[in-house]
Amino acid sequence: MLTVKIRIDRQVSKETLDDLGLRDGDIVEVTNNTDKDSVRVDSKTQENAIFIEYFKSLRDEIHLRIREHNRLVWIKIISLAVIISFLVGRFVGNVDEGQSSKFLLYLVWIIPGIAAIFDNLIGGNLRVISNLGDHIKSDFEESAFAQAKSSVPGFRFWEEKGARPGDYWHCYTRRDMLAIWLFTLVSWIVSILFRIQVGFDLWIDPVLAMASLIVVLLALLYLVRSTTVKRKEGSST
């Protein structure tokens, strides 16, 4: 450690002395701390700051994706309502006998497909949220923050408590996914009722109904797996 004492003389301007809270003749002690331990502490502090910022960025990413989840759910509901309302108002009770008009009526089967697309977007977003939570749980809460947790008996971090499958505080459960998927199922039922109303084709409509039902069931499977299947080590999903 190097310490230097400097006497303040009149060559220093009065404004500078006022800013520093000094007067003429004061002795200022300047210390140059080159202690290796201090350098190591500063380096460790910088590493901890980067570590904490990385943790905060993960939490911010989860918060953004939760808002995205809510937005996708509402877009799905509103889109289905608009499409169904348009088709009902356009065709029910007002069907032309033209061949082109009859062909357009088969487009009603795209409604469950659109709903399934939204389910895949929702499921993919929830999958990332679940993966981020697993990363925070295993690499932060159970490892890096273990010492801090041990100082408070009975304390558990959020990811190891609230965001785990089967726990009372779990955010996105199978029931939540079922509630989201029910709108997709309703869209499939509405498509059948719509076709019956305008003229159900016994050759074409059953095939389209079964194909769309398969898509609807696959959407449910993906929604459930997105929040219940743990990410495998080394997997890219």
Structure description:
The chain is mainly alpha-helical and 237 residues long. It folds into 2 domains: 2-32, no CATH class; 61-228. 69% of the residues lie in helices and 5% in strands. It is built from 8 helices and 2 strands; from the N terminus they run E-H-E-H-H-H-H-H-H-H. It has a two-stranded antiparallel ribbon with strand order 1-2. Helix 2 runs antiparallel to helix 4, helix 4 (110-144) runs antiparallel to helix 7 and helix 7 runs antiparallel to helix 8. The longest helix has 56 residues, at 36-91. The radius of gyration is 32 Å and the shape is elongated. It starts with a strand and ends in a 9-residue tail after the last helix. The relative contact order is 0.10. Mean pLDDT is 75; it is low at 1-6.
Write the layout of secondary structure elements.
Blueprint: E1 2-7, H1 14-20, E2 27-32, H2 36-91, H3 99-105, H4 110-144, H5 146-150, H6 158-161, H7 174-198, H8 205-228
Helix pairs in contact: 2-4, 2-7, 4-7, 4-8, 7-8
Tag the structure with descriptive keywords:
single chain, 237 residues, mainly alpha, two-stranded antiparallel sheet
Strand order of the largest sheet: 1-2
| Low-confidence spans | 1-6
Cα(first) to Cα(last) distance is 53 Å
Mean pLDDT: 75
Given the C-alpha coordinates, what overall shape results? Answer: elongated
Strand element count: 2
Structural class: mainly alpha
**Major beta-sheet overview:** 2 strands, antiparallel
**Strand-residue proportion:** 5-15%
From N to C, what is the helix and strand string?
EHEHHHHHHH
Radius of gyration: 32 Å
| Number of separate structural domains | 2
- Helical percentage: 55-70%
Number of helices, counting only DSSP H or I runs of 4 residues or more: 8
